[in-house]
Structures are given as C-alpha cells and as structure tokens.
Design a protein that fits this description.
This protein folds into three domains: 65 residues, no CATH class; 54 residues, OB fold (Dihydrolipoamide Acetyltransferase, E2P) (Beta Barrel); 60 residues, Orthogonal Bundle (Arc Repressor Mutant, subunit A), CATH 1.10.10.10. 45% of the residues lie in helices and 13% in strands. It contains seven helices and five strands.
Length: 223
C-alpha cells in the first residue's frame, strides 16, 4: 500500500480525535503513521502486521494510562447537579406535581414540584429535596412535620423542632438534648441547623431569646 494512504489515514484519525478525546482514533492514527513510515521498504503484509501490532499496544497499554491523565468529563446524560439535593426546605405555598416554591435558609428560593404522584404539600410544610428536574426541586414532605390542634407552628418549625427549641432555651447542649429525646447527637445537630435556618438566627442564644419572646419556650423549663 502506498505510504501516503497510511499517512492520510493517520492524519484523518488524529483530526477526528481532536473532537472526541477518546484516544481510540489517536491510537489508530499513530499505528497508521508507523505503517506509513515503513511502507516504502516493506510489503503490504508487513505493513498490516505492524499497523495491527502498534494499534494493539496503543489501545491496550498506552491508552488506559493516558486516559487517566485527561480531565474527567461527565456524559451529557448525567443527572444535573444543580440545586441542594438532600437538604430540607420550607414550602412557600401549595406544591403539587405542576407548580410550587420552596425557601431554603434565610431567603434562597427554588421552583418546586412534588416528587410523588398525587402528593400535595401544603404551605409552611417542611420538605426534603430528593432530586432535580431541570431547575425545579423535587420534594417530599418530612414525616415529622405535623400541625398540632393549635395550628401551624411559628417560623414553620415542626413539632420535633419546637421540642428541641424548648430544650435549647432551657440551656441544654446537643448531647443532653439527644439523651432526653433518645436520639443521636447527629439528629439533634440537624434539627438545630434547621431551626436556625427557619428562624434566621446564627446562635443558640438568639434562638432561645426569640423563642422566649414569642412564647414558644420558657427559660424556667426544667431539665
């Protein structure tokens, strides 16, 4: 085979490789270049054998090592990573499968949709973000978010969070609260973080002061 055929194959493979970065066509291109280099002094059989051997070495030995050096890229079909999946938020209004809105922390808002068919989340309900559909958060209501006969709790706090807040106001640490409620300290830590977000505070002192002022808790509550 004329040398220029091999070189043409090599150039074409390398040009296409520049758009794919898979290193497969690049390996073939290098093998074709080697076969083209020996074409003037060898027969077609030798050229094909050298081409196959070099391509095999490049694909089996060289390519795997080279791929690890390239920047990792996610496939276009990968799930989007936008949004705070796994966090909890507060429903601003009614949420169903077609519309809704949630608030995270001190004022970060997301469009929301109910993750499960037929589920409707009322306003001021604590939800967990379980996924994303484009820019819309897919949410499920948190199980312990229940209203008492007295009506919705202030700041959208759940019944359990109210209980934790009262113990904070009583001066208890997370470890003491965990022991009182028979839960793990990690669970208490999550409750405290959600309480701070919903109340817009950054410390236990501020949370306790607001809770006492709002009549949610009393500093005289015993341990």
């Amino acid at each position: 085979m004329p040398w220029y055929v091999w070189i043409g194959l090599a150039v074409g493979a390398v040009v296409i490789e520049a758009f794919t970065l898979s290193l497969v066509l690049g390996s073939v291109g290098i093998a074709a270049a080697v076969a083209g280099a020996i074409a003037p002094v060898t027969g077609l059989g030798v050229q094909i054998a050298v081409f196959a051997a070099v391509a095999l070495i490049m694909l089996v030995l060289v390519r795997p090592a080279a791929v690890r050096l390239l920047p990792a890229s996610e496939p276009e079909s990968a799930a989007p990573r936008i949004g705070p999946v796994g966090r909890r938020a507060l429903s601003v209004g009614r949420i169903d499968q077609f519309s809704g809105e949630i608030r995270l922390g001190h004022g970060e808002f997301f469009t929301a949709r109910a993750a499960d068919p037929g589920v409707v989340v009322p306003a001021q309900r604590e939800v967990e973000i379980v996924g994303m559909a484009g820019l819309a958060a897919l949410v499920r209501p948190v199980d312990d978010e229940k209203s008492t006969p007295e009506g919705p709790h202030p700041f959208g706090l759940s019944a359990r969070e109210i209980e934790v807040l009262r113990l904070i106001a009583a001066g208890m640490s997370n470890a003491e609260i965990a022991e009182r409620l028979v839960v793990s300290p990690r669970t208490v830590h999550h409750h405290v973080s959600h309480i701070f977000d919903k109340m817009g505070v950054n410390s236990r002192v501020d949370a306790a002061r607001i809770a006492i002022r709002q009549g949610i808790a009393s500093p005289e509550e015993s341990r």
